[in-house]
UniProtKB/TrEMBL annotation:
Its cofactor is Zn(2+); Mn(2+); Fe(2+). One of its GO terms (molecular function) is transcription cis-regulatory region binding. The keyword Hydrolase does not apply. This is Ferric uptake regulation protein. It comes from Neomoorella humiferrea.
């Protein structure tokens, strides 16, 4: 799905949802931060600068609606906060690497599980429609810092 502002608004209209100013400003926040994985609080902090009247409850309701309509993807990285990103991926071959030190999230698009999905379907008859793969570890910068600290500790 083409995730331009107009395309998303058109989808909302087709599904009989109003494109309110609050929804518009929230959509714009995601379009301007397309590479980010934003929590509701982060979205709220972004949008309240442009639309000071917006409430956190409105942000939560809008995020839930947009996720339900497959405009946003809801993701849990194990840090206790639900995050959202634009659902820009035509396929489900979208995975994440999460740094345990700084919390940085890196994406990669290679589908490492395609052959496993086929095998599971053949063996069980289960029709897989999606999967998520998350790797937890240390990004390049944090791994280098940990290595420096361990070198200092060894002295």
């Amino acid at each position: 799905m083409e995730n331009t502002f107009n395309a998303i608004c058109q989808k909302l209209h087709q599904l009989d949802y109003k494109v309110t100013p609050q929804r518009q400003v929230i959509l714009q926040a995601f379009l301007e931060n397309a590479a980010e994985h934003l929590s509701a609080e982060e979205v709220y902090n972004i949008v309240k600068e442009r639309y000071p009247e917006i409430g956190l409850a409105t942000v939560y309701r809008t995020l839930d609606l947009l996720a339900e309509l497959d405009i946003l993807q809801k993701i849990n990285f194990g840090d206790g906060r639900t995050r959202y990103e634009l659902d820009q991926h035509e396929t489900h071959y979208h995975h994440h690497m999460i740094c345990l030190e700084c919390g940085r999230v890196q994406e990669f698009d290679d589908d490492l599980l395609e052959s496993l999905e086929k095998l599971l379907t053949q063996q069980t008859g289960f029709h897989i429609t999606d999967h998520q793969l998350k790797f937890f570890g240390y990004c390049r910068d944090c791994a280098a810092q940990k290595l420096k600290r361990s070198d200092v500790d060894a002295i």
